[in-house]
Amino acid sequence: MRRRQFLGLCGAAAGSFALPARGATPESADFVQHDLLLDADKRIARRALVLQPAHVPAGTKLPVLVLLHGLGETGNELLGIHAWGDRYGAVRSYERLRRPPVKKLYPKYPWFSDAHVEKVNAALEQRAFGGLVLVCPVTPNPHKVGPAAKTLDRYADFIESTLLPAVHAKVPCLTGPAHTGLDGCSLGGYVGVEVFLRKPKLFGTFGGVQAAFNVPSAIRYAERIASLSKGVAVHVGTSSEDPFRKANEAFAKELGKRGVEHDLSVPPGPHNQPWLREVGTLEMLLWHERRLAKK
Q1: Which CATH architecture has domain 3-294?
Q2: Backbone angles phi, psi at 260, to 5 degrees
């Protein structure tokens, strides 16, 4: 897939049913928000929103999940750090998981089937959602800043050497790869897999929601993950109308061939933000919480 086609698909998907550009994560009794401005290069990333769980006793340490946003919020720090909390529905999804039974937000759409809702609620009945520290940094567009490989190198270094140490210093949380996950949406899914391949020992779980890459890249990514990382669990989330569905399904298939633990989910629906708010983000949060709790 050529760069122009890739960015066009990401941009078209990002623009579908997007919320107004207000750049504000909703307040929630479940979280304390920390806006971190870090000593780093603004062209790559220097800012992140940390959502610290407020529903656990003081000093309780929970796993950390780093979330990378899509193309539509690149170039604007405020939109970037608030993308997951606001537009992608992470705060409301987290609240729904903590207050079962989970219900549909958009019942007129078939995105979250009755069977899927029942499966989620059965899992929550078996064991309550424990929570995660959510870290939402600015995600760069690697094709805009300069040579993409160099930008991705620098961004991976930023996450390892600047972002995570700052999070560990700011909020009580579990540390180390067994307690740290990484996920990304669309462009953020592509950036996420590139970061993971550069820092495979940094994360115990990794995934993407409608990750934006093509089939040849998916095969190559699976080969490298299998060779570089032992014991990682991978979440592959796509949807029936996602333009990147074939690539994500190929990614999951190739991971399976190589014995990499993974889960593939393909609910009905488009590549847009209401779908994320309904089911994509909620499913992703529950998946990482379950896997990181096991570790």
Answers
A1: 3-Layer(aba) Sandwich (3.40)
A2: -90, 125
